[in-house]
């Protein structure tokens, strides 16, 4: 079967800004080199002497054949004085390892098509995804290759389509859209567990659309309790995990966020979520007014990029809980930076989203850790997890 390739404009517009990058992926990462790239680099006349010290053979797999030995500043030794890659400039793109060749590009195969995207851990990708006016124009064309189709289960394709529809509902803001998506995913759980037919997902969409039109979903969101204790536990646990796992926790960008959080701690060094939420309500939220669609854009990217609510053998609700948790953490990061800078610039917003996704999209332990935290603090119902988005006042 001829397969297609779907490319959002944020992907086709992307081009690495190299020396101008605020957080180069060639600094502070574990960079793995595949076998083919290792051999070609070691054999290259102008690169081989540097390659002997710059790469360490680990032979974990063909993809992880060697690892880059970073210099004292955590930078890849193949960077030249202008922060350009010598492997690329001297030996050409073909010699680059797969990671270096493709990052931050990603590609997900769904059914018989390829869906291209970018990782938000790259600042330039974050800029395009969050701010470029036509980022979400999609191009679909035949790829010229053949893929054996693996049809998505109906609960997944319908949940995906219907979630996007609820996100884009003009009557709902991003928090209310998330509540609607949570209620839809409750039905997806039942379809996933073979309790009801997949057609119920369309019935549910119709009901939720009607409720949004009548303002009833909005009322439901308003009536949800503000549970600051829950928010403290979630924020402290997830940020604590980031302090342990962020590969660039000693870097300026992570420290900027960490210091901004510290400035809002209580005298006993515990998290004061009331102060964070106050900063959101009084500084961050008004500062974001000109980018009122910021979270809707992020959630649209998320649904597309992850093929939400796909999960690995877990009920769809687990994907929904992660989505809300991510939005909650990002809102808190934006609030603390807004408090520090008394406003939010585009580069502040990029900082928060990009730094967060270095762990979120690249640490395989994140999902397990975050799920355990949500189970521990009993974020099992839609109302419970959505209460993370309430900001009091
Ligand atoms: S993080 Fe993105 S823009 Fe920066 S050097 Fe890497 S690919 Fe280029």
Automatic annotation (TrEMBL):
InterPro entries: Puta_zinc/iron-chelating_dom
Keywords, ordered alphabetically: Cell projection, Cilium, Flagellum
Pfam families, per database record: CxxCxxCC
Record-given protein name: Flagellar biosynthesis protein
Organism annotation: Shewanella hanedai (Alteromonas hanedai)
């Amino acid at each position: 079967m001829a397969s297609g390739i779907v490319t959002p404009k944020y992907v086709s517009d992307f081009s690495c800004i190299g020396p101008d990058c605020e957080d180069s992926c060639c600094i502070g990462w574990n960079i793995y080199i595949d076998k083919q790239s290792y051999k070609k680099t070691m054999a290259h006349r102008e690169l081989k002497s540097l390659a002997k010290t710059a790469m360490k053979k680990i032979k974990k797999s063909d993809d992880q054949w060697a690892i880059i030995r970073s210099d004292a500043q955590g930078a890849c030794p193949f960077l030249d004085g202008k922060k350009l890659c010598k492997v690329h400039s001297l030996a050409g793109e073909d010699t680059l390892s797969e990671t270096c060749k493709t990052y931050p590009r990603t590609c997900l195969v769904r059914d018989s098509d390829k869906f291209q995207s970018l990782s938000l851990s790259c600042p330039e990708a974050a800029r395009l995804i969050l701010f470029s006016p036509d980022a979400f124009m999609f191009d679909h064309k035949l790829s010229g290759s053949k893929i054996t189709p693996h049809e998505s289960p109906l609960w997944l394709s319908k949940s995906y389509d219907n979630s996007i529809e609820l996100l884009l509902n003009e009557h709902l803001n991003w928090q209310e859209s998330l509540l609607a998506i949570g209620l839809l995913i409750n039905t997806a759980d039942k379809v996933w567990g073979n309790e009801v037919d997949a057609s119920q997902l369309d019935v549910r969409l119709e009901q939720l659309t009607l409720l949004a039109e009548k303002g009833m979903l909005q009322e439901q969101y308003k009536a949800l309790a503000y549970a600051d204790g829950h928010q403290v536990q979630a924020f402290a646990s997830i940020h604590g995990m980031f302090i342990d796992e962020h590969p660039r926790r000693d870097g300026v960008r992570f420290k900027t966020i960490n210091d901004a959080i510290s400035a809002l701690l209580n005298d006993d060094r515990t998290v004061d979520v009331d102060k964070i939420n106050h900063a959101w309500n009084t500084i961050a939220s008004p500062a974001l007014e000109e980018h009122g669609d910021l979270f809707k854009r992020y959630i649209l990217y998320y649904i597309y990029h992850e093929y939400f609510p796909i999960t690995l053998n877990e009920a769809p609700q687990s994907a929904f809980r992660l989505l809300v948790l991510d939005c909650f953490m990002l809102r808190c990061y934006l609030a603390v930076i807004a408090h520090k800078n008394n406003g939010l610039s585009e580069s502040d917003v990029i900082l928060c989203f990009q730094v967060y996704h270095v762990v979120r999209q690249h640490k395989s332990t994140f999902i397990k850790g975050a799920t355990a935290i949500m189970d521990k603090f009993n974020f099992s119902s839609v109302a419970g997890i959505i209460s993370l988005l309430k900001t009091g006042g």
